[in-house]
Amino acid sequence: MDENTRYQVLRNDEDQYSLWPADIEVPAGWQPVGKEGTETECSAYVDEVWTDMRPRSLRERMENAEA
């Protein structure tokens, strides 16, 4: 990818994030979150919103085990 590539931020059902070229079809199991820009801009967004790297299913199991 070159420095002019536009990216979009994707999220899957486990609340995991990924950067994906904006002009390529989104792969199955992933949804756009509405953020698009340079790789740096999208990476900064992911750093801001993805504060717990554990998959959602693991977080839920851990929360249920604590209850």
From TrEMBL:
InterPro entries: MbtH-like_dom (IPR005153), MbtH-like_sf (IPR038020), MLP_fam (IPR037407). One of its GO terms (biological process) is siderophore biosynthetic process. One of its GO terms (cellular component) is cytosol. Residues 2-48 form the MbtH-like domain. It comes from the Bacteria. Gene3D superfamilies: Structural Genomics, Unknown Function 30-nov-00 1gh9 Mol_id. This is Antibiotic synthesis protein MbtH. It comes from Streptomyces longwoodensis.
